[in-house]
Amino acid sequence: MRLKRNKSKKSLIDQANLSIENIKSQLNHTSDLKDREIHSNNQIYIILYINSLVDQEKLESKIIKPLIKMENNNILNELYSQEISTAKSNKIAINGLLDGYCLLIKKGRNSEGFLLKTNASTDREVSEPIVEKTILGAKVGFVESLDKNIFLLRTVTKSPDFTVKKYTLGSSTTTNVSLIYLDHLTDPEIIKKVEQRIKSITLDSIRSAGDIQDCIEDHTVTPFPQLLLTERSDRASANLKDGRVALIIDGSPTVIILPATFMTFFQTPDDYITRWWLGSFFRFIRLFSYIIALILPALYIAFVSFHYEAIPLELVYSLQSSLSYVPFQPFIELMIMQLSLELLREASIRLPPSIAATFGIVGGLVVGTAMVEAGIVSYGGLIVVALTSVSSFVQPNLEMSSSIRILGFPLMLLAATFGFFGIVIGVLCVLIHLSRLTSFGVPYFSPFVPLNIKDFKDTIIRVPSWMMYKYSKNSPHYKQEKRSRKWKLDESEEPY
Amino acid sequence: MRKTELFLILSILPLLAGCWDERLLKNSRTVYISGFDLDENGDYQTTSIIRDMNISESSRGEISISNDLVTGKGGSIKEASMTIDQSVPGYYDPAKGRTLILGIDVAKGDIYNVLDSLYRDPRVDLNAKIAVTDNSANEIITHISENEVEKGEYLYELIHSSEMYSKMQEITLRSIRTYLFDEGKDFMLPYLSKDEEDNEVKINGAALFHDHSFTGQFLSPDESTLLLLFMEAQSKKALLTEQLDKKADGSVSYNVKSVSRKLKLEKEEKVHADIMLQLDVEIVDYPPNHLDKQEMINFLENRLSEILTEKADALFKKLAANQSDILGLGRELIAFHPSIWKEIKGENYYEHILVNPKVKVNVRSSGIIL
Q1: Which of A278, A489, B294, B363 is deepest in the core (most CB within 10 A)?
Q2: Mean pLDDT, consecutive 10-residue segments, chain B of 370 residues?
Q3: Fold of B232-370
Q4: Which candidate from A323, A325, A373 shows the least CB-CB separation from B25?
Q5: B25–A329: do the CB atoms touch at under 8 Å?
Q6: Does A306 contact B23 at a Cβ distance shorter than 8 Å?
Q7: Residues 6+ apart with CB under 8 A from A271
Q8: Within a domain: residue A29?
Q9: Could you state, in order of their start, the residue ranges of all structural domains in chain B?
């Protein structure tokens, strides 16, 4: 029954002739769909719009008022709307109405209508995103409006090569998506691939950036994100300038950057604002903390249940002294600790900031110490879990740090069954997996596998910006001029 | 189908590695020091200290340390360990022991009998130090367990520091094995004794070994430093003091900065080993001073060369008497003069070697004053 109805609806939409009655029935005679007849110059015009989507002010002053005062019949010259397009079918007209346009139809000539831009915008103020904080750098985050986001990007990426392509996705409810790239820097292969993948999305509706990510990423069975999600406009802009592509989804402040390699997730805008020594140091710390967060719990388990001969004697005694009260296996002990930490983390997300501080003290300090004193976990285990979670907070990207959480548990299990041998197996599997991943055809573990030492200049370390004159292999068309520090040569030649 | 097979093989393979025998740290009784003795019946007696740290529940994490002295007897070292295992809660684990003490009876026999079981255990700390005592190991360890409770790895540090000052040859459980099975080389171990007056365990000198067993003789720390210089095996610091005259203030202390040795081996009636040792020294203590004058330096150089050559003569006579080839002349012969080695090789090859040492001292520095 339902199917049948849908089918009949569809056929009506596809009907070539523009008919107000049809449009109204398509939109189920929704009560916020308004129409207004205007008599002007012996003509009757009908304006059709969805009340809740249009800006009343705009509609009155820019469409209705000039229409009434109109002296000749040339509509295109008289209306103040910045965007006018002709709608020749019901489908186009309905999509326009849903985007906040109003439909202007001359009565008597049903075949043609004009779509006039009158949409209301509910932009919030631009503010710094909560998740990706930086010390220095722009305090500009994306908002929920597509146009404003493009505006934010364009203002920091002024270039004639800045290219925007719009897509409408979703078959039952539609969402506008924009693809943005710098034409002279971006590999055309990647653009082709992205376009192809976006066009193949046939989801009923797009809820968030995650839906698109699910549909277009190369590999879904992996803990590693292959698309970078960001709310920072400077980060998105920097990535555009590196030859990457941005996908902005209407209604979402999260922008998708692609293709992202493993090392992309360790770069932050801060690295490029501070001097390069400091930037390189921070990068290194981040990479180091990633490794620590990944294997430290596993190492601890392996040490205390298999290989305690490998730790210094004094440490053996002090670990042993608090371990001897713990009734569980080291693996269970760490699992209890890790799980309770996950609980704390999950709980604190939804707490208002005023309670969160108290919660942190009660949850972290009190529970932690009490657990040790009650003999549920040992001091060693507590230190390991605390260090691990601190290291995972160092990660600038939320998704990348969650990959640690997902990979950490199997590694702990392997360490508990095979000791060091298990850790080696586990880490090897992760490395092999990383080497096999691709993101839009770009090797995911890129400067390491395949090895490309020249690309290390902006991965493990960050060299000064005047040294980055060559772009990576994937965008070979463009080179930065090499002369940023030529003044030094000039100055030394100057006679005193 | 192939994928399932591959998956099965890959999941079974880790199990074959045999690395999954769990040994929980909390159940183990970690040994801190071990000693081995031989009793009248020919049984081995192992004495170990098991250290425990206890966090007291009442006074919030205060740590107290207690030593647990355990002994066990058996026909082999392993059997003795098993006897101990039966008397302690948890697993008795000698792997972490960083100091091994050989009682005099054990040292005089074949010491490899004691070490064999250690080499067969993959977990043993190969950097453990080995020492010989003038009495039974049991006595020394009992003394340590009663008196050195708070001092951490007392014996290990004791031996380590004397190695740092070139008083002892650097020997660990790992390196001793090469000496044991090298036909042309012997070694010396720290010789411990209990000082009754000070109630302390001290290093008395270096016990000389021949082949696998202790000769009964030992070198004084000064002699052993000189020997280490002849071996070019000194550490960064090699401090020596010589009395130039009979007068009380006629002493000079010096630190050997670098050594160069020339060794000549010739076969005549006996094998003559002429060793020419050049020492570059730094004067660290010489109250009479006037080291800015060349005559003074010359006097010191000549006098020191004389004294050291004399001492070296005595030293090598002592080594010859004990057949202890610590210098590794046998190895030298095997490597560079195989024809000579063929004639003299055998257990007591050292009697065929006559060492003729000569020392030349060069004063290179006198500290930050002249």
Answers
A1: B363
A2: 87 76 84 89 90 66 78 92 89 86 92 91 88 91 76 79 91 93 91 85 91 91 92 88 75 91 88 92 86 87 92 92 90 91 86 91 86
A3: GMP Synthetase; Chain A, domain 3 (3.30.300)
A4: A323
A5: no
A6: yes
A7: A279, A280, A282, A283, A462
A8: yes
A9: 23-219, 232-370
